[in-house]
Specification:
FAD, alpha/beta, Rossmann fold, 3 domains
């Protein structure tokens, strides 16, 4: 264990009020609730009919369409929401609402088919075929449902872990096809859509906003920023045998709205890498002149970064993430890093005010990336740096290295600090469990998953 400490005056506490996460989360809930109310109103105006099964089919179809639009807003990467909630949280919500969407649309198909089969006194399969071949828009809806089932299947945890990211991402593009097919079905066959001019205007407005958010957030804004900043590789610096830092320069970088702790999706525009986007955190606080990322060779793509040539054009999407000082609630902080997850922690240490304790967990001291920089920053900032080495389960007088008693011994006032955690999932989960046992308030805990950070 290495400890460096110089006393420093504590930074003043931030002003009170609702946290950015609470404000953004409340905004999303309010947006969803308002749309549910509007859809319910237009549904009531369109009439309920006499068949209970068809009624249930219409209800599940309407709310399924609303959830589908909400899905696109969650992954539109709108900066205001992303800075306050983070891509990790938004992506998790997208995943779970995706399964909700799947069940709603399946229920819609089943109830509508059974209801019409009951009215026509026909077997359900026969009625489904009849609807698909005689009613405009139904066949498109069947194809859309099939695509959504496929997308839902590959998004299940078991399938996702066994599939290359590029394959999974390509299959997800079919969601846009499903949306077009489902919306044209709604236009052709949706009685609530056509019940009045305000209802029609509402649905068109909802989908214009949802798809427009995707176009702006995922395509328009990245394209604008890259055309403006003209990013290029300025230097490639090996940090260790399997770790390299890439320095990026460009025009007007002082106007790039990046903060320490955030990450970009980086594309290096070479013949063999231009189509690969990899998430790497900034490993130094933005200074308005350059950006730096530090990557460990975890695969063929990241291993090839050390061979990039100076002057290589870069296309960067971002900055993304809520792992920033914007979310601090206390004047002092604890920064917990594991492995190459230290990169956003190192950047945060450079930007944070107030007293900080850094816990850097590695299996072997040789794995401690950027350790000299951390030691220098600790001296300059008056922080305390603990380098924790050895197996996670290695016995100590206070239990495992990141167990509750160990954390409390290293940081006695941990309940009065913000805690920032970034590292491999197992380590992050262990720290989060320890923090819960120590009763650190939830609003003071900020975690970034290693998969998005490094």
């Amino acid at each position: 264990m290495t400890t460096v400490q110089i006393p420093v005056d504590r930074a003043p506490a931030q002003a009170g009020g609702a946290s950015p996460k609470v404000v953004a989360r409340t905004g999303l809930y309010a947006l969803m609730a308002a749309n549910v109310a509007v859809v319910t109103y237009f549904f009531g105006q369109s009439g309920f009919g006499t068949n209970a099964l068809i009624l249930m089919g219409r209800v599940t179809g309407l709310y399924g369409t609303l959830v589908m639009a909400f899905q696109f807003i969650l992954v539109a990467r709108l900066p205001w929401f992303d800075r306050r909630l983070g891509m990790d949280r938004l992506t998790t919500w997208h995943r779970w609402t995706g399964f909700t969407l799947l069940w709603l649309l399946l229920s819609h198909a089943v109830f509508i088919t059974l209801g019409h089969a009951q009215l026509a006194d026909l077997p359900p399969v026969t009625e489904l075929v009849d609807l698909a071949t005689t009613v405009e828009g139904v066949l498109r809806a069947v194809v859309a449902l099939f695509l959504i089932i496929v997308i839902g299947g590959v998004s299940a945890r078991y399938a996702r872990r066994r599939m290359a990211y590029e394959t999974w991402h390509f299959i997800h593009f079919y969601a846009y096809v499903a949306v077009v097919l489902a919306f044209t079905h709604q236009i052709a066959a949706g009685s609530t859509f056509n019940t009045s001019e305000p209802a029609t205007a509402y649905w068109w407005g909802l989908w214009t906003f949802a798809l427009g958010s995707v176009v702006v957030g995922r395509f328009g804004l990245p394209l604008y920023r890259n055309l403006r900043h003209q990013l290029r590789v300025a230097a490639v610096v090996p940090e260790a045998d399997n770790v390299v830092s890439i320095y990026i320069t460009g025009r007007d970088l002082h106007r790039m709205p990046a903060r320490a702790g955030q990450f970009f999706l980086w594309r290096f525009l070479t013949r063999d890498r231009w189509y690969k986007a990899n998430p790497f955190s900034l490993s130094a606080a933005p200074d308005g002149r350059s950006l730096r990322l530090t990557a460990k060779a975890a695969g063929e793509g990241s291993a090839s970064l050390r061979y990039l040539k100076v002057g290589t054009r870069v296309f960067a999407e971002g900055p993304y993430g809520a792992f920033t000082a914007m979310h601090r609630t206390k004047p002092n902080a604890v920064l917990v890093a594991g492995g190459v997850g230290v990169t956003p922690i190192r950047a945060l240490l450079e930007e944070l005010h107030g007293h900080a304790v850094v816990l850097y967990r590695v299996r072997d001291p040789r794995d401690a990336v950027l350790l000299n920089e951390l030691r220098h920053l600790a001296l300059v900032r008056g922080a305390v740096l603990h380098l924790l080495t050895g197996p996670s389960a290695a016995p100590t007088p206070r239990g495992p290295l990141l167990a509750p008693h160990s954390l409390a011994a290293m940081v006695p006032d941990i309940r009065d600090r913000d805690v920032f955690v970034c590292g491999p999932p197992a380590m992050t989960d262990a720290v989060m469990t320890s923090l819960r046992e120590l009763k650190v308030p939830k609003q003071q805990v900020h975690a970034e998953r290693f998969s998005m950070a490094g």
